[in-house]
What does this fold into?
Amino acid sequence: MNKSLALLVAASLALPALHAGDWPMWGGTPSRNMVAVASGIPDDIHSGKFIPRTETIDPKTTKNVKWVVKLGSQTYGTPVVAGGRVFVGTNNESPRDPAQQGDRGVLMCFDEKTGDYLWQLVIPKVGAGKVSDWEFVGLCSSASIEGDRGWVVSNRGEVICFDVKGMADGNGGPFTDEAKFSSVDGKPVAVGPKTADILWVADIRNELGIFPHNVSSCSPVIVGDKVIIATSNGVDWSHLNIPAPLAPALVIVDKNTGKVLAEEVSGVSKRALHASWGSAAFADVKGVPTIVWGGGDGLCYGFDLNPYQHPEGFPALKEFFRYDANPPEYRTKNGQPLKYATHDGPSEIIATVIVHEGRAYMAIGQDPEHGDGVGMVSCLDLTARGDITGKAVWTNKSIGRSISTPSLHEGLLYQAEYNGNIHCIDITNGKILWTYATNSRIWSSTLVADGKLYCGTEDGELIILRTGREMKLVGKPEFFSPIYASPVVANNLLHVATMTHLFAIGK
It folds into this structure.
């Protein structure tokens, strides 16, 4: 066994046990493949009606909804479920704490069985407006949970480690200034059993000189003692200038302390088209622990999990491969570069790259504000010629821009497109077997569970299709606000976060 593999095995053995049916991170596992093991999830779903003159849904008007809770007014953070708790990022437009009024990022924690509100982490804004911390967007990151601790990227670009129990069991430290952390005007806020218990905060935005564009949106992946995050570094308000071209787009911090352990030095930031928003995946590729990640420059990268000492004296990520997920004709035309944010121009990788059995699958796309445009789905062989090369097995350019992470199950790849189409692709050749048109916009990612495919739409419909080589619509229950987050399944419960409410669906 080589040294790298030995380190990986040791790291996996050190992980605390999770409930078998939990969904503890974005994508469920470090592979980020959106597939859950489940059974008995009902198809006949009714989201219910509001109690008059309130934002509360009358549970008597729902069907197969175990519980539903109010979130903020904008929810982009996909829920995660672990250890009997549900964590979701939202904003503060329906304040749980009357003393905490105004625009904030919020991580809420609920009881998995009952939906009871347990605690919240309230995060003030950067104060840069739409440039780096868009007003009222809230917390876009999905947390990662391991044992009694969680990690999340704040709307201010910090990495925050927290106790999953909150302050209900006291302030565990070593961080003890939660009252000041959540303060907006410098006056400490009141803390109590419904307050998050922060263990440490790593302000990598200021430490590394990062300039997040619009939002900080990455969701961490934990491998051994390492937390891997993208920084959202990108362009400024003009969309022409890159304020921090030398700042890393991907970093590793120590999960116990927040200390920066490694930085990406491949030059992603100086090539950024917009921002490096995508989350990283992790895989063991032929015994080599490998980070697989789609960058804000439209390239997919493979990095060694174990850093090396850069000649300038800091730990850096060794690059195994890079693959341009844009074909040449999206980059240049008649010898001239094509402009970004045009229909025919290049795209970054916002959707998370998933890894499965030595291959990586990815789609390119842009901020939905930029509209439709050309896209491509790629399959890379990470083990070609006995080395980690990032060689394309197939590509499909008939699929347009996407910000949706795919799901791969039984030889079929399910990929949503921003224009509203959901595609089923044969992974042996990249051919589309069927396409379902939702006639809406799609930000949500696909999820496979219980023999079905789930995907939310901007029109507030949850599309449910039968998995397999033949298309069959199972249902499309309607919700009353857009579904931008992705549906997840944990312990035979389907969790759907709309912009304003979180639903737990099950018999």
Remarks:
- The chain has four helices and 39 strands.
- The helical segments are 3-13, 178-181, 204-207, 328-331.
- Residues 307 and 317 are 5 Å apart (CA to CA).
